[in-house]
Write a structure and sequence with these properties.
Length: 289
């Protein structure tokens, strides 16, 4: 008989093999809940996680796109779709409860749902767009996380240390961009909110991860008519984001080059930043968002 000494406990070869196999199985069958999953970053994240064997809960407004996505993923029948608007907090909580009940728990929650439009404060009709963007990008992030925290705490008390709450922010939240008051404000709020939540949950065995994408090739950026430095394919972003989430990184800008740029912009005195960006290109306004 061969024994293995791990920490303060001795395992037989059979026990060690069973324990190791169980750990691999648990890692391969992660339970992941993703909002804004029907296209763009959400769909790319779903594809990456499904390829790794995860069981997915996919949330978006457009049922037909969710069905197409789920059907295209490995192990299609094990995934669950929820066609709802994330600003409907009751529906979101019901989806969370259904997913936990169906899978027996939760490992990763990614609050990815987000919308963007050019906004100008001087136009009264843009106020409704502000409210819609903040409700979708900020308040819905809170509503996405809230139903899962109690279950994650229970899992952590039982010994799991793999629980992750992931907020998708943006480099646009690091410094305000002209013509994007609502979007920049919303993503700055996501960054600060996730930081507050991260500190609050530090002792609870739950890691809060903030991902700040730069320019990623998705339907949201494909409408931009201005140059987008370091543009990255969505699939490449998803792989890097998944690695950061697995590592439990507190904050990660993807691609890293945009992280360097963002830090430099943050260090610029206001007078220099204002001069450099006062004539920057604007995203088109959409008062009907």
């Amino acid at each position: 008989m061969v024994d293995f000494f791990i920490g303060a406990k001795v395992f037989t070869l059979a026990e060690y093999s069973e324990k190791n196999a169980s750990a691999h199985a648990e890692q391969a069958m992660k339970r992941v809940f993703i909002t804004g999953a029907s296209s763009g970053l959400g769909a790319a994240l779903a594809q990456s996680y499904a390829t790794q064997g995860a069981v997915l809960g996919l949330v978006a407004r457009r049922r037909e796109l969710l069905e197409e996505l789920a059907a295209s993923l490995p192990n299609a029948r094990q995934h669950r779709i929820y066609a709802l608007d994330v600003t409907d907090h009751s529906a979101l909580a019901s989806a969370a409860a259904d997913f936990i009940g169906a899978t027996g728990g939760i490992d990763v929650v990614i609050a990815n749902a987000g919308i963007s439009a050019g906004t100008l404060t001087e136009y009264a009709e843009d106020l409704a767009v502000f409210e819609r963007i903040l409700a979708t990008n900020v308040t819905a992030t809170v509503a996405t996380f809230a139903p899962f925290i109690a279950t994650m705490k229970q899992q952590a008390q039982a010994g799991s240390r793999d629980c992750r709450l992931v907020g998708i922010a943006s480099v646009a939240g690091i410094r305000g961009l002209p013509g994007a008051e609502a979007y920049s404000a919303s993503k700055a709020a996501v960054i600060s909110y996730c930081e507050s939540l991260r500190v609050e949950l530090k002792g609870a065995g739950i890691k809060v991860v903030t991902i700040a994408p730069g320019y990623i090739d998705t339907p949201m950026t494909q409408v931009n008519t201005y140059p987008m430095p370091f543009l990255m394919p969505a699939s490449a972003f998803a792989d890097k984001a998944m690695a950061a989430i697995h590592a439990g990184a507190s904050y990660r800008v993807i691609p890293w080059q945009m992280g360097v740029v963002a830090k430099l912009l943050r260090l610029l005195p206001n007078c220099l930043y204002d001069f450099a960006f006062s004539r920057a290109p604007h995203k088109s306004r959409n008062a009907k968002l």
